[in-house]
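User: I'm curious whether this sequence folds into something compact or stays loose and floppy. Could you predict its structure so I can see for myself?
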Amino acid sequence: MFATRFSRLVLSLFVLAGALWLGIAVARLAVGYDAFITGTVMLKSKLSQPVLLQTIWLYTSLGMWTTIAFGVTSVMGLWVIWLVRSWFKRHGWLLMSAILFAIMMPAQAFVIDADLLLWSFFDYHTGMPLAQPGEIINVFTSRFSNQAIGITTSLVLLSGFTLVLFTTMRPLHNNTTEE
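Assistant: Here's the prediction. I'll summarize afterward.
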């Protein structure tokens, strides 16, 4: 199935983009939540406005990289699913992974859609804010206080890590049938 160079390239791009997506998404959450008092959605009072705006810009730019990595992961993942579709009966972990991946795609699209407003507040070339600092901070705070976005982000990340576990543990794998 992965005998051609093209199919190996597609699989390699899928794995590389997926690893980048998961890593950047975790880093992004760490940056974003660092602006808040632990366990709340109240901003830390010790952060000055320029530092807070820089944190929001870093969070936003990491979001752009997360989106690019997930876009590549999605395209390559759909291609890989198409390549291995004949293996689904013998290897249940592949079918479970494909279903989980298909569910993740619209959920991650929802999160990306929620980030569009925040992205529009910055110039990507310079990182300079294009709106009033209070407006940017308000949108950033409301982004983290929105439960639907928070839950969706968490579930997408958990799904991504579950896909990694499926590929390493390979549950429902039938070893009796030759490829």
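Summary: The mean pLDDT is 91. Residues 5-169 form one domain.
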